[in-house]
UniProtKB/TrEMBL annotation:
InterPro entries: CheY-like_superfamily, NreC/VraR/RcsB-like_REC, Sig_transdc_resp-reg_C-effctor, Sig_transdc_resp-reg_receiver, Tscrpt_reg_LuxR_C, WalR-like, WH-like_DNA-bd_sf. The lineage of its organism: Bacteria, Bacillati, Actinomycetota, Actinomycetes, Micromonosporales. The keyword Transcription applies. The keyword Phosphoprotein applies. Residues 140-211 form the HTH luxR-type domain. The modification 4-aspartylphosphate is found at D49. Keywords: DNA-binding, Phosphoprotein, Transcription, Transcription regulation. Residues 1-120 form the Response regulatory domain. It holds the Pfam family GerE. It comes from the Bacteria. This is DNA-binding response regulator. One of its GO terms (molecular function) is DNA binding.
Length: 211
């Protein structure tokens, strides 16, 4: 199954996989259609882009993670121009449950190599572009690199000792938005949910000060 919003790329991948003997059950253009098509067709492998409608951010990758959670044996090959570091790590950490791959479109120079990667992922192996590996390792060395600019801004204000309400006033956002950003900071800095929020807040600030 293929999920790619670009019509020409979608048709090209479909033709390529068919030529190498694979049956393409469905080829869709957005993450919602991907989720529905998987439930309908129950494929062995999904090939998906990262950025798809409606927001063109990380819908395809988030859909892939959700599908892996619902169908642990479903093989997933991400084929994209972008490295979405936060969710890429989450997807690759699920490799022990079945085939996973993450390849960059611009770095695929040989059709046969791509076909081989598809076969390997479908067979339960892990195939990852070395540039993806390099960026993920870099992120592990610097946990703050996982944060968005807004999350970094919120963390900086936390380091100044400001409350959620004060942060909301400074950034002209709602208290709920601040709480969501802080929750994301906790998750991306691997601060366990079984700690109380105040303790996690202190640990997040310490991580920021180290950076």
């Amino acid at each position: 199954m293929i999920a790619e919003d670009g019509v020409l790329i979608r048709e090209g991948i479909t033709g390529l996989l068919t030529r190498f003997g694979h049956e393409v059950a469905a080829a869709v253009g957005d993450a919602e259609a991907l989720m529905a098509a998987v439930e309908e067709h129950r494929p062995d492998l999904v090939v998906t882009d990262v950025r798809m409608p409606p927001k063109f951010s990380d819908e395809g990758l988030q859909a892939a993670i959700a599908l892996r959670a619902a169908h642990p044996r479903l093989a997933v090959l991400v084929l994209s121009q972008y490295i979405e570091q936060t969710y890429a790590s989450e997807l690759l950490e699920s490799a022990r449950r079945g085939g996973v791959g993450y390849l960059l479109k611009d770095r695929i120079g040989d059709v046969a190599e791509f076909a081989d990667a598809v076969e390997r992922v479908a067979s339960g192996h892990t195939v990852v572009d070395q540039e993806v590996v390099g960026q993920l390792l870099g992120r592990r060395r610097d946990p703050l690199a996982r944060l968005t600019p807004k999350e970094r801004e919120v963390l900086a204000l936390m380091a100044e000792g400001r409350s959620n309400a004060a942060i909301a006033r400074t950034l002209t956002v709602t208290d709920a938005a601040v709480a969501k950003h802080i929750g994301n900071v906790f998750v991306k800095l691997d601060l366990p949910a079984n700690d109380d929020d105040q303790h996690r807040r202190v640990r997040a600030v310490l991580e920021y000060l180290r950076g």
